[in-house]
């Protein structure tokens, strides 16, 4: 169902400028969810666009399954890679949410059978007949994510998928990603919403100065205050609770921390 | 003394019969930093527009009931900075100076206000850059600086940190706290309840266009990750909203 | 490339009204004259303007692109189908008065296009804004003008992002004419809808920043307007008035 994504020695720069990516190599296996972290402007979005075939590297190779991305057009890559842009509004055009979500599957000749299910999954069924521009901006972003999921790609590349979302919407995205990863989809997420990253990613990769400088389990990295601070980040709330209370096992997910707190005999607040 | 007063206010957008906002009574005093929270679509943005006087005058629609706003030209900041550019400024400084320049103030005063605002946002290094070429995060700081340069009595912000990385977001909310302490009135709507709770003096919770809770953040808010952890672990209300509060509750539990 | 091209020529550094006045003068004068020679002198003047500002390369291409189809149509309409006397020109029989007419009309278009492109290339929107603000022109007209000037680059940028987004959803660019036509919808609609939605927000933002305050806005960096340039612009007005007076009294 999913595809292994392999990046080898990627070099990329804009125009005639210096290399932004200076030899990036990375593997994301089918069924894995990896989060890409790094300071602002380091090249995370650039890397995701290279994988989707929207940019061509100066050197190096990207493969998605048995496809060499350099040999494919972006619309061909859409068959395997579902790319969710950071700013959603550049895609919306249909008269209803349902029509817009159906656009991707229709373009790929996949039929619209899966659209209703995806709308349901992301809590958009009630809004299915609404004009996207009549919805608040975060909901429009959810609509474009639905459009990507409806194409049922073997690889998901998501750029800040939860920006502007409330907790309920974030939960929906976490569940949708988990479901697909379980089916073998490979997922690469760029996000500085570490609470989201903790819930969804098993692995965290850090980009700095054009290179991958860390590639570790989410558990270890999201509890590592010093590394996170170097990127202007902090441990996510669950991990922060774990660190503050010295909980065993470096819990980074809400459920893990709740489990560790089971024995607490709470007293009412003062 | 109220800076904003709403009484029996009902607002409807043009062409829609159902009210987008129904407020029995809302009084906001000078120097308050009010966090406006609720599920996306619950009317938080609408409340900001009505409370700042720009709905229905600019947005269209109808407003029934009473509204009084004691603030000269409230400053408004939304989540999408690129739609808030004037379109005629080719440097960040000119963009930020637009508000004071619109008041016809002397040139030195206009520039001073613009420089000061950029400094406060830590964006002074962007002064000669073209706004059209900035990143989302840089732009958002510029837009907040532009609002600040107007020296507003009332500052209304809708998810102002949406484009910012966590560190910059923290600094922005800290700045809002400073502004409130300086005597300005600040309303901020955001799904980032944890950050808002950290600096707000008061919180409103909206549901389907109505205010369902109004009070001190600690007693009224519950949509933060830490609060969820506490609730799921069986902690009784009011729930701790941040790590420090949770640690304290655990310590009390022994 | 239609738009501002940075440079250090005298016209670049002049008050923004000056290049615009020159272009307007070329336009008005080319309509005052109605025989080929003086009209094509206006074309030469426009070319000199472009050369003097160092923007000839950026201007000539688009100018020819815009003017050539019209020139061809004019030549056919007036040259081939015009009145006698006719003279042979290669395999064609061209009408003499018709060719003269085509040269006049074509020359006007050429002069106007080149002069205005050259003016657009030398007037930076920023300085134009400052110049207009310093003259007390309210925000509304300034905004309209600058939006028009910057419309193409902004739209191109937006269109590129939309193209990318739709390709990432499987939209194939190319193929049969029908396929290409249908591909326009998901490209053009987000452009229009996005622009409209943004206008709503922008109007609100501008209102909150005092754009419609009615108070005379403070210019931040008013461009210098030395007496020499004001005299030049006045002189252009005089020349245009004299030319038109002569034209209307049939002296030219």
Topology:
The complex is a heterotrimer of chains A (270), B (254) and C (252).
Chain A (H helix, E strand, L loop, with lengths): L4 E8 L8 E8 L4 E5 L6 H8 L7 E6 L2 E2 L5 H4 L3 E4 L12 H11 L7 H7 L15 H13 L5 E5 L7 H16 L3 E5 L3 H7 L2 E6 L2 E7 H5 L2 H6 L6 H8 L9 H7 L10
Parallel strand pairs in A: 3-8, 3-9, 6-7, 7-8
Antiparallel strand pairs in A: 1-2, 1-4, 4-5, 9-10
Helix pairs in contact in A: 3-5
Chain B lengths: L1 E11 L8 E9 L3 E5 L6 H8 L10 E8 L5 E3 L14 H11 L4 H14 L15 H14 L4 E5 L7 H16 L3 E5 L3 H7 L2 E6 L2 E6 L1 H4 L4 H8 L10 H11 L1
Parallel strand pairs in B: 3-7, 3-8, 5-6, 6-7
Antiparallel strand pairs in B: 1-2, 1-4, 8-9
Helix pairs in contact in B: 2-3, 2-4, 3-4, 5-6
Chain C lengths: L9 H4 L3 H16 L3 H17 L3 H25 L5 E4 L2 E4 H27 L2 H10 L4 H29 L9 H32 L18 H22 L4
The secondary structure category of chain B is alpha/beta
N- and C-termini, Cα separation of chain C: 37 Å
Radius of gyration of chain B, whole Å: 19 Å
Number of strands of chain C: 2
Shape of chain C: flat
Shape of chain B: globular
On the 0 to 100 scale, the average pLDDT of chain B is 94
* Continuous helix count of chain C: 9
Order of SSEs of chain B, N→C? Answer: EEEHEEHHHEHEHEEHHH
- Enumerate how many helices of chain B there are, as a single number: 9
**How are the strands of the biggest sheet of chain C laid out side by side?**
1-2
Radius of gyration of chain C: 23 Å
- Share in helix of chain B: 25-40%
Q: Strand-and-helix sequence of chain C, N→C? A: HHHHEEHHHHH
- Overall average pLDDT of chain C: 89
How many structural domains of chain C? 2
How large is the share of residues in beta strands of chain B?
A: 15-25%
Helix content estimate of chain C: over 70%
Give a summary of the structure in a few sentences.
With 254 residues, chain B is of the alpha/beta class. Chain B has nine helices and nine strands.
């Amino acid at each position: 169902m999913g595809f292994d994504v392999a990046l080898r020695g990627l070099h990329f720069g804009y125009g005639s400028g210096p290399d932004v990516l200076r030899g990036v190599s990375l593997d994301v296996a089918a069924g894995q969810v990896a989060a890409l972290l790094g300071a602002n402007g380091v090249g995370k979005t650039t890397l995701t666009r290279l994988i989707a075939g929207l940019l061509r590297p100066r050197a190096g190779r990207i493969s998605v399954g048995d496809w060499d991305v350099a040999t494919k057009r972006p619309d061909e890559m859409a068959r395997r890679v579902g790319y969710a842009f950071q700013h959603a509004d550049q895609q919306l055009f249909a008269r209803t949410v349902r029509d817009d979500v159906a656009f991707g599957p229709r373009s790929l000749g996949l039929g619209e059978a899966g659209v209703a299910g995806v709308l349901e999954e992301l809590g958009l069924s009630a809004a299915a007949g609404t004009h996207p521009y009549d919805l608040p901006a975060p909901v429009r972003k959810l609509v474009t994510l639905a459009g990507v999921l409806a194409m049922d790609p073997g690889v998901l590349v998501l750029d800040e998928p939860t920006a502007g979302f409330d907790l309920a919407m974030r939960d929906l995205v976490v569940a949708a990603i988990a479901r697909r990863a379980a089916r073998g989809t490979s997922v690469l997420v760029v996000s500085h919403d570490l609470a989201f990253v903790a819930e969804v990613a098993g692995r965290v990769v850090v980009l700095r100065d054009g290179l991958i400088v860390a590639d570790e389990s989410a558990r270890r990295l999201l509890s590592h205050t010093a590394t996170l601070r170097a990127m202007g980040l902090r441990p996510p709330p669950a991990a922060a609770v774990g660190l503050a209370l010295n909980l065993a096992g470096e819990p980074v997910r809400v459920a893990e921390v709740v489990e560790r707190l089971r024995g607490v005999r709470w007293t009412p607040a003062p | 003394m109220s800076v904003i007063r709403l009484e029996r206010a009902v607002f409807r957008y043009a062409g829609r019969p159902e009210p987008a906002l129904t407020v029995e009574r809302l009084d906001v005093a000078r120097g308050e930093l009010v966090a406006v929270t609720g599920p996306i679509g619950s009317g938080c943005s609408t409340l900001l527009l009505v409370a700042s006087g720009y709905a229905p005058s600019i947005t269209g629609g109808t407003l029934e009931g009473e509204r009084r706003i004691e603030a000269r030209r409230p400053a408004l900041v939304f989540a999408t900075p690129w739609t808030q550019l004037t379109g005629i400024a080719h440097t960040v400084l000119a963009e930020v100076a637009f508000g004071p320049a619109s008041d016809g103030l002397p040139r030195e005063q206009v520039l001073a206000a613009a420089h000061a605002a950029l400094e406060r946002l830590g964006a002074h290094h962007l002064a000669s850059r073209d706004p059209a070429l900035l990143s989302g995060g840089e732009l958002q700081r510029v837009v907040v600086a532009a609002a600040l340069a107007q020296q507003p009595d009332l500052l209304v912000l809708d998810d102002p940190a949406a484009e910012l990385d966590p560190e910059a977001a923290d600094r922005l909310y800290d700045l809002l706290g400073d502004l409130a302490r300086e005597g300005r009135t600040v309303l901020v709507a955001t799904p980032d309840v944890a950050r808002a709770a950290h600096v707000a003096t008061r919180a409103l919770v909206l549901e389907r266009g109505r205010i369902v809770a109004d009070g001190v953040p600690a007693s009224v808010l519950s949509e933060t990750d830490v609060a969820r952890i506490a609730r799921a672990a069986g902690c009784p209300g009011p729930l701790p909203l941040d790590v420090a509060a949770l640690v304290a509750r655990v310590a009390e539990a022994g | 490339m239609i738009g501002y091209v940075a440079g250090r020529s005298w016209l670049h550094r002049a008050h923004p009204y000056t290049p615009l006045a020159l272009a307007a003068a070329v336009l008005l004068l080319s309509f005052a004259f109605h025989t080929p020679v003086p009209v094509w002198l206006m074309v030469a003047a426009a070319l000199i303007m472009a050369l003097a500002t160092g923007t000839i390369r950026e201007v000539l291409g688009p100018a020819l692109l815009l003017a050539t189809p019209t020139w061809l149509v004019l030549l056919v309409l007036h040259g081939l189908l015009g009145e006698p006397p006719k003279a042979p020109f290669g395999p064609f029989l061209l009408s003499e008065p018709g060719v003269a007419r085509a040269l006049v009309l074509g020359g006007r278009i050429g002069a106007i296009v080149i002069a205005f492109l050259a003016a657009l290339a030398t007037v930076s929107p920023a300085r134009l804004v400052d110049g207009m603000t310093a003259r007390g022109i309210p925000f509304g007209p300034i905004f309209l003008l600058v939006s028009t000037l910057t419309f193409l680059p902004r739209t191109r940028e937006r269109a590129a992002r939309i193209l990318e987004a739709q390709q990432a959803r499987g939209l194939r660019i190319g193929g049969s004419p029908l396929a290409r036509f249908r591909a326009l919808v998901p490209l053009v609609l987000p452009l229009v809808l996005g622009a409209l939605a943004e206008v709503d927000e922008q109007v609100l933002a501008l209102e909150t920043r005092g754009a419609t305050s009615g108070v005379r806005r403070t210019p931040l960096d008013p461009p210098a307007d030395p007496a020499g340039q004001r005299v030049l612009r006045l002189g252009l007005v005089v020349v245009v008035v004299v030319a038109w007076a002569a034209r209307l009294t049939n002296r030219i």
